[in-house]
Amino acid sequence: MAKFKSFYTLNSLLPFSIMDRYLASELLPTFLFGVGAFASIGVTIDAMFDLVRKIVESGLPIGIAVQVFVLRMPEFIVLAFPMSTLLATLMTYSRLSSESELIALRGCGVSVYRMVLTAVMLSLVVTGMTFVFNEHLAPASKYQSSQILDKALKSDKPTIAKQQNIFYPEYQKLKQEDGSTKKILTRLFYADEFDGKQMKGLTIIDRSTKGLSQIIVSESGEWNPSQNVWDFYNGTIYLVAPDRSYRNILRFEQQQLKLPRTALDLAQKSRDYGEMNIAQSLEQLEIERLGGDEQKIRKLEVRIQQKIALPFVCVVFGLVGAAMGTIPQRTGRATSFGVSVIVIFTYYILYFITGALAQAEVLSTFMGAWLPNFLGLGIGIFLLMRVAQR
Predict the structure, then answer these.
(1) Which of 59, 178, 200, 216 is the most exposed place for a label (fewest CB within 10 A)?
(2) Among 41-45, 85-89, 177-181, 330-334, which stretch is predicted with the lowest mean pLDDT?
(3) Which contiguous run of DSSP H or E holds residue 170?
(4) In angstroms, what CA-CA distances link 4 with 7, 8, 98, 104, 116?
């Protein structure tokens, strides 16, 4: 009891008291154990089995498989952070409660809210770590692993699906006389479809050259990687003067033009949703909006909101775990681990359901991503208030 009185005496003098340091020292080892355990289980189930199959069936070199395996780890560490936060808070506070240490703290005048505040503050730190991993490390490493794997299995059949209505605009910012900037269209690339190799039904408006615009209409076109140019077949080039009159018309069977290959990258979908950070997702969203595919637009809007909402699950899990752990009870580590798994499973089921409802336009994109967090936060506050009233 004397030990906890000293905790409470210094509690009002230090912003991070001895009690906070004691709780943090109890939380940290369990949290690190959870990160290692959950990340290892996730990457093993999702990546290892598939890599072993590719080693056996496709002759994937073991060195490449190990490299891909390591690059996939950040993706699962991101998911492990919230789960480990719940496991650490629930297991630590349950143990302290069963050993009457929390009761001793309350006897010294420390409120339940103050005891749980330590877990919430540490959860905020984990939230920042989750955001950094989810924004900067996980997308880049997953994209790199996909590139390495595709290159190693280049003899396999191409997996690029046929795309339709490829629409890609390019803009340029021009400074006006009054000092403001104006965004104008410099190039517009449109193709009816892409079969994995060639673009079909091409129309390109090129206004990148000052004083001259050209309209290219072509039956088909493909990227020439050896010369970094486009090869267009069976088409016509219309040169338009500044006064909007035709300056020249050129018909061709084959014509090479030096244009960016960005439209090809878009058609090939070189990055899926999990391989883009928020900034890249927003850029992709602008392109999809111009393309007009409402289903893709809605799906990407939901994914962007989920990328923002995911790190804050750590705070929710930290609050819920600490609140459940402070309930006077005698539970072992196995019970705490089992409860954590049930809570995590329930949350992610709800996460996928609300995301699907948002994509189906039953919920807004914001509510589809954030509703599980709000529900979890409400449950955590409710449990905490009930414990505090005892």
Answers:
(1) 178
(2) 330-334
(3) strand 163-175
(4) 5, 6, 16, 7, 16
Residue type, 106: R
Cα gap 124→153, rounded to integer Å: 42
SS (H, E, C) 214-228: EEEEEEEEEEECCCC
Inter-axis angle of helices 112-132 and 62-98, nearest 10? 170
User: Residue-wise over 96-122: b if at least 16 C-beta within 10 A, else e?
Assistant: bbbeebbebbbebebebebbbebbbeb
Rounded mean pLDDT, 83-94: 89
The pTM of the full predicted model, rounded to 2 decimals, is 0.71
Read off the amino acid at residue 148.
Answer: I
Count how many Cα atoms sit within 13 Å of the Cα of residue 210 in the half-sphere of its side chain: 2
The structure tokens listed for 4 are 């906890």
The dihedral through the CA atoms of 137, 142, 145, 150 has a sign that is: negative
Tell me how far apart the alpha carbons of residues 153 and 158 are, in angstroms, rounded to a whole number: 10
Stretch (H or E) spanning 95: helix 62-98
Nearest Cα residue to 260 out of 212, 204, 219, 218: 204
pLDDT of 286 strictly over 70? yes
Torsion of CA 297, 298, 302, 307, to 10 degrees: -10
Q: Report the b/e string of 9-18 with b at 16+ CB within 10 A.
A: eebeeeeebb
Half-sphere exposure of 337 (CA within 13 A, CB side): 9
Q: Which tens digits make up the pLDDT trace of 44-87?
A: 787 788 888 888 877 788 888 888 888 888 888 988 999 999 99
Q: pLDDT tens, 209-264? A: 777 788 899 999 988 888 888 899 999 988 887 777 767 788 888 888 888 777 77
Long-range own/partner contacts, residues 328-335 (CB < 8 A, 24 or more apart): 328/97, 328/103, 328/390, 329/94, 329/97, 329/98, 330/98, 331/94, 331/98, 333/91, 333/95, 335/94
pLDDT exceeds 60 at position 276: yes
